[in-house]
Amino acid sequence: MGRGRVQLKRIENKISRQVTFSKRRTGLLKKAHEISVLCDADVALIVFSPKGKVFEYSTHSSMEAILERYERYSYAENLLTGPEAETQGSWTLECSKLRAKIDVLEKNIRHYGGEELEPLNLRELQSVEQQLDTALKRIRIRKNQVMHESISELHKKERTLLEQNNALSKKLKEDEENNEQQNVGFLLSQPPPPPPPQPPHLVPLAIGSGSFQGAAVIREDDSAQIHTISAATMPPWLYRHINE
Prior knowledge:
By secondary structure, the protein is mainly alpha-helical.
């Protein structure tokens, strides 16, 4: 007894619906590949899962090329419908083109981030890898360029700081020399200091009588006054010693 015809309606069971989607998606991709090989046709297949994941298949031509071909065909067909439909059709076509480009860009971003790589075949994975390698090379080149520019800027700042340091050192040296010259000029302009007072010239004076021996100190200026002292004001023995 053969299988009965499956009634086409939404599968209510979530697990069964997901399993059926996976099986049918695989069969659909296989059929698209078979028709492209057998009939040498350009086939583009895009499937969105209930969770929003995109699954696609394209022949040897890229998906973008097939979509652009479809848009050009739709645009040419809309031109044949009349002037009124031309304006509306052009806006519709432009909107469709922009939506298709947005979908492709979002898909590429997810692929570059390592997401949703399961439906990609070997050739598509190699294409993504090549694009990432090219992007990494460009990033490294730009990074090295920025590093060299930063190093050059630091060298310029270093030279500027050295020049400023040398200028400040030169100015400081000049200020020190000017200060020394001013100090020397100030010292030369001052009158010489008075000579220090000379110590008084001492004249020994021996005074002694009997067992008493003594010494007296008299200034040289006062020696003349000693001779003028009257003999009557001093004892004879002192007068005799002074004359000696």
